[in-house]
């Protein structure tokens, strides 16, 4: 009995000295609640900072201004164009050939020389033709004197009327012979029929030539023609006087402006295309004949808001620009339309006169302050550092 009492007394003392089993669980729950409160408080504090930054609060004010180059959105006249390739033709171009056969005694031009109409190019030997002319003139003079004496005698009835009539006919024949002799002599000299640029020499001094021998070429390049083909779908949209701009790899950075001159009256049944010729002024004789050129014909013109192409930012399905407002960059969604080399049309989203960022867009975000380091021009390359 005493032993059982002692055992129960020892067990009651052990349980009374130990902590209740619910105390550790309560402590863990309190710690978890404290951690949750800290996390929630940190989250709301972060949200508040982000909101203050987007509203231009203290956080945003500490961001340094980003240097940028800007340009103005400008209202410009743009044209819908059709493009083709063509070949230049001289306004007038001929091969110079002699009108008579003979030996070349003089070559009076240099290749590439500009000559006026009537300038001497080549002379052939003309000894015989000069002698023939002198003989014809002598015969004519003899006939004229005989006719003069016959008329004087006819007034005295010393010669019959038939003699006078015969001498009148001989005089007319003699004058015709003189004209032929002069023409044959003139044909010994080859002259430029119009002003232009002569080509290479095809003969040398002393060469024997005839009516089929090409001496050189002559091109009137004061105004060039360019011939190109367009598909039949444009036939009703092309008319004389339409503006044309031509370019060539031989003259980088330069364009030649002209107008449509003539349109072929037929469409080729095989290619389903028709030929067009445009005229290009060439006062400095820059363009040669036979040059390959790229041609653009303006079909219609309209006003459009144009901005430099490098101002446009594409991210996924979004196309936007950064517009500078109150010293900050603002994202502005736009819709792009007509394109020209280096420029695009803003169909929607921009108004004429607004300032867009051209350089420095890669460092921008919506609402970030900017510092304008240079102003570009929608018609040229923006100036100033990026």
Q: Low-confidence parts lasting 5 or more residues at pLDDT below 50?
A: 14-19, 53-61, 378-386
If you compute it from the alpha carbons, what radius of gyration comes out, rounded to the nearest whole angstrom? Answer: 48 Å
Strand order of the main beta sheet, please? 2-9-12-11-10-13
How many DSSP helices? 5
**Secondary-structure class:** alpha+beta
β-strand number: 20
Helix fraction, binned, reads 25-40%
**Strand content range:** 35-45%
Q: What coarse outline follows from CA principal-axis ratios?
A: rod-shaped
Determine the mean pLDDT: 86
Please provide a written account of the structure:
The chain is α+β, with helices and mostly antiparallel strands and 386 residues long. The protein has helices at 2-17, 23-54, 58-61, 127-155, 161-186; strands spanning 66-72, 74-96, 102-107, 114-115, 120-124, 189-191, 196-198, 208-209, 216-231, 243-247, 255-263, 273-281, 292-308, 313-315, 318-325, 328-333, 335-340, 343-348, 355-359, 370-375. The protein has a 6-stranded antiparallel barrel. β17 (335-340) and β18 (343-348) form a beta hairpin. It is rod-shaped, with a radius of gyration of 48 Å. The N and C termini lie far apart (102 Å). 21% of the residues are buried.
């Amino acid at each position: 009995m005493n032993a059982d009492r002692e055992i129960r007394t020892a067990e009651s003392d052990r349980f009374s000295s130990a902590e209740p089993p619910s105390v550790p669980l309560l402590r863990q729950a309190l710690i978890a609640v404290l951690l949750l409160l800290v996390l929630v408080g940190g989250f709301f504090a972060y949200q508040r900072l982000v909101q203050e930054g987007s509203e231009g609060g203290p956080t945003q004010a500490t961001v340094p201004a980003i240097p940028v180059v800007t340009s103005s959105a400008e209202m410009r006249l743009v044209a819908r164009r059709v493009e083709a390739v063509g070949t230049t033709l001289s306004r007038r171009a001929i091969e110079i050939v002699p009108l008579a056969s003979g030996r070349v005694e003089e070559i009076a031009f240099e290749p590439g020389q500009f000559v006026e109409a009537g300038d001497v190019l080549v002379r052939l030997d003309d000894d015989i033709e000069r002698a023939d002319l002198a003989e014809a003139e002598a015969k004519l003079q003899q006939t004229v004197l005989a006719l003069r004496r016959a008329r004087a005698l006819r007034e005295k009835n010393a010669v019959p009327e038939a003699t006078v009539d015969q001498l009148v006919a001989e005089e007319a024949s003699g004058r015709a012979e003189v004209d032929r002799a002069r023409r044959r002599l003139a044909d010994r000299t080859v002259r430029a029929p119009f002003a232009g640029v002569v080509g290479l020499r095809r003969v040398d001094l002393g060469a024997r030539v005839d009516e089929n021998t090409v001496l050189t070429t002559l091109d009137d390049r004061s105004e060039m023609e360019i011939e190109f083909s367009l598909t039949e779908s444009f036939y009703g949209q092309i008319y004389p006087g339409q503006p044309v701009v031509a370019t060539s790899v031989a003259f980088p950075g330069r364009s030649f402006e002209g107008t449509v001159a003539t349109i072929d009256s037929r469409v080729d049944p095989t290619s389903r295309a028709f030929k067009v010729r445009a005229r290009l002024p060439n006062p400095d004789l820059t363009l040669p004949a036979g040059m390959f050129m790229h041609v653009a014909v303006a079909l219609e013109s309209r006003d459009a808001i144009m901005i430099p192409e490098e101002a446009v930012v594409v991210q996924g399905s979004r196309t936007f620009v950064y517009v500078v407002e109150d010293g900050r960059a603002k994202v502005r969604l736009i819709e792009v339309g007509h394109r020209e080399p280096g420029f695009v049309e803003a169909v929607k989203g921009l108004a004429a006169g607004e300032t867009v960022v051209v350089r420095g867009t890669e460092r921008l975000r919506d609402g970030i302050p900017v510092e304008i380091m240079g102003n570009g021009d929608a018609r040229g390359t923006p100036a100033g550092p990026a």
